[in-house]
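User
Please review the sequence:
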Amino acid sequence: MANSSSNSNYKAVPEATDALNRFKYEVANEVGVSLKDGYNGDLSSRDAGRIGGNMVKKMIQKAESQMAGK
């Protein structure tokens, strides 16, 4: 039986789950990808990558601006 630390979906801050989910839908909307509530297994790899890539890009920009004191 695997423990939670070996799960690739392990959240370092479980309390952030709802905020990350809202962020995912916000970014998907910005890049023109339609997500539905619940299962999105029919989403293409390309669209999933666009969402995830843009999420990471925005998180890095936010961290950089915080480090710069802006």
User: Anything to note?
Assistant: The mean pLDDT is 89. The first helix runs from residue 17 to 30.
